[in-house]
């Protein structure tokens, strides 16, 4: 993550597009032009025009490399601004936060993955940015290293089978990556209905047993259900408080090792009793491996829950000050607080919600992250989770809160 000083400078550069848009051929006005993938362009950095903007369209998941070769004494630096307006990577800072000094007539190399689809802007500048002194020419090359992965199937099964039972889909969550080091990834669901968990399509490809879990027996539940003690879970018309007796009396859980998962895991939460109901789910075993690491979580409403509200909260492991942050794709009905500590956060109602889990009170606070989706559709929505503290890494828990409505039709 960038230091505050470096970040502030890149934000200033990113916001100067209106000035650059007036550029003609004058060497003293920053350029604002387009660049195509696998294209090389040549331009000049001067004392007055110490940066240029190069725009292109990126698709979420694409991997790029940018090489900026300086000449004539220029010490090159290049950054990239996402469609959200945030400068999320630059050539003058390593993943561990180390600041790199660019030498005159050297090459600045930047590799990055596109977080969300939309217009991206390369910002070509010099070492020191507005405080720099070098000038000269540069060659800028944008290369596509890897295409975006195949888009997930936007359709969710209305029902699915687990052993001899048929469950109605409530929600689908995709989480985890190949970098997870926890012994297992575990999903636990507490609900007012009999919950069922399915992994992937529910069946092994090598004759292995079905990858699903039916409700726990009433006398065999290993984890105490969460109890909402500070207020209602805000889910619109389906808002609820779990303090009532038997509100979340049913449960189910499923665990899988990161090695067996071989990357991300897709789990479907279902119900054996279609109709009105609410649930709370907890995912354990996730972690941020470094200050430049981020995790992508994909959520989908089940067809019979698509007009409801699904809330997500990311909470760092106790004693770890990760300062969780979340951003989301720009979709109508989706809200996220990049930093829950901001006064502008539209989901501040969660500040007063406490959850008692396993006999210990867990309180969501300003260091946690929260997001909400109420799209009315079943298409997937991506959320990116990262840590706001550049000196901290560690594990975190993902909480999901949702509802099933009897009146919905797919």
Describe the structure in your own words:
By secondary structure, this protein is mainly beta. The chain folds into 2 domains: 4-146, Jelly Rolls, CATH 2.60.120; 159-404, no CATH class. β5 and β6 (87-90) form a beta hairpin. Strands 10, 11, 13, 14, 17, 19, 21 and 26 form an 8-stranded antiparallel beta sheet that branches. The chain is built from 3 helices and 27 strands. It has helices at residues 4-14, 17-20, 258-261; strands at 32-34, 39-45, 52-58, 63-71, 76-81, 87-90, 107-113, 118-126, 136-146, 159-162, 165-175, 185-191, 195-199, 212-213, 227-228, 250-256, 265-271, 277-288, 294-301, 310-316, 324-328, 334-336, 354-357, 360-363, 369-373, 381-387, 394-404. Helix content is 5%, strand content 42%.
Helix content: under 10%
| Number of beta-strand segments | 27
**Are there runs of 5+ residues with pLDDT below 50, and where?**
1-9, 17-25, 204-209, 225-232, 234-246, 351-362, 406-410
Which band does the percent of strand residues land in?
35-45%
Largest sheet: 8 strands, antiparallel
Instruction: Indicate the radius of gyration in whole angstroms.
Output: 24 Å
So what's the overall shape?
A: elongated
Count of discrete structural domains: 2
H and E order = HHEEEEEEEEEEEEEEEEHEEEEEEEEEEE
Distance between the termini: 42 Å
Q: Please count the helical segments.
A: 3
> Which class do the helix and strand fractions yield?
mainly beta
Mean pLDDT: 75
């Amino acid at each position: 993550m960038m230091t505050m000083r470096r970040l502030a400078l890149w934000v200033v550069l990113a916001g100067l597009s209106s000035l650059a848009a007036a550029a003609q051929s004058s060497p003293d006005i920053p350029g604002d032009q387009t660049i195509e993938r696998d294209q090389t362009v040549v331009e000049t950095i001067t004392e007055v025009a110490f940066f240029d903007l190069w725009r292109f369209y990126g698709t979420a998941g694409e991997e790029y490399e940018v090489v900026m070769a300086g000449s004539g004494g220029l010490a090159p630096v290049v950054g990239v601004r996402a469609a959200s307006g945030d400068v999320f990577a630059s050539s003058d800072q390593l993943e561990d936060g180390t600041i790199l000094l660019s030498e005159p007539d050297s090459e600045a190399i930047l590799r990055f993955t596109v977080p969300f689809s939309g217009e991206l802007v390369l910002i070509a500048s010099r070492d020191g940015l507005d405080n720099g002194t070098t000038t000269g020419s540069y060659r800028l090359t944008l290369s596509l290293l890897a295409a975006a992965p195949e888009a997930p199937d936007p359709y969710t099964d209305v029902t699915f089978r687990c052993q001899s039972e048929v469950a109605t889909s409530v929600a689908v969550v995709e989480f985890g990556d190949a970098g997870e080091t926890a012994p297992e990834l575990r999903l636990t669901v507490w609900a007012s209905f009999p919950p069922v968990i399915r992994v992937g399509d529910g069946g092994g490809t090598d004759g292995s047993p079905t990858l699903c879990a039916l409700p726990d027996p009433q006398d065999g539940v290993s984890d105490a259900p969460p109890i909402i003690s500070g207020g209602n879970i805000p889910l619109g018309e389906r808002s609820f408080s779990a303090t009532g007796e038997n509100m979340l009396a049913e449960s189910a859980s499923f665990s899988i090792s990161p090695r067996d998962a071989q990357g991300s895991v897709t789990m479907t939460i279902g119900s054996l009793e279609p109709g009105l109901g609410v649930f709370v789910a907890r995912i354990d075993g996730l972690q941020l491996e470094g200050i430049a690491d981020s995790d992508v979580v994909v959520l989908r409403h089940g067809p019979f829950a698509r007009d409801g509200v699904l809330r997500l909260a990311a909470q760092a492991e106790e004693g770890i000050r990760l300062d969780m942050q979340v951003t989301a794709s720009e979709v109508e009905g989706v809200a996220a607080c990049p930093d829950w500590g901001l006064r502008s956060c539209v989901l501040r109602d969660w500040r007063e919600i406490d959850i008692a889990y396993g006999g210990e009170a867990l309180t969501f606070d300003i260091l946690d992250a929260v997001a909400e989706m109420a799209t009315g559709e079943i298409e997937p929505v991506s959320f990116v989770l990262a840590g706001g503290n550049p000196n901290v890494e560690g594990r975190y828990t993902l909480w999901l809160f949702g509802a099933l409505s009897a009146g919905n039709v797919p």
